[in-house]
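User: Hey, quick favor. My workstation is busy. Could you predict this chain's structure for me?
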Amino acid sequence: MMGTLSARRGLEWLLGLYFLSHVPITLLLDLQAVLPRELYPVELRNLLTWYAKEFKDPLLQNPPTWFKSFLFCELVFQLPFFPIATYAFFKGGCKWIRIPAIVYSVHTMTTLIPILSTFLFEDFSKANGFKAQGPKTFPERLTLISIYAPYFLIPLMLLLFMLRSPYYKYEEKRKKK
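Assistant: No problem, here it is.
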């Protein structure tokens, strides 16, 4: 019993750290593609430009409309959820987080499928919507995928935790007659 409790609390802390770290990443980097440029100091704009060029991230160099739609969802739906999830997982034992966590995890994994597929299968050497910007070699593709993969794998872990953990399983409350 104690080992199960320790494992659950360890995973809750990992999830709390994940959601806590997501707030500055979203606000300071991701949303630069959808919010007015003037909101960001030049240092943050330069950091994003450096990252996009260094890691050949075509989605942040020249964000396509479909990717901006994902970032808009991140702003409207995910960003408000991050502090709530951070609180719930650091506090631990908050069974009410189950359904919102399931919704978050499925939504996030769904958005990562086209992103990771783009990195794997897009021919960036052609003059297409990405203007020949992006990873050209397989190692460059793997590096970029490794940056994005935790945003698929941790939500997958969260989903399985919420669905399989006996602690978070829904228990119907019946009224006594």
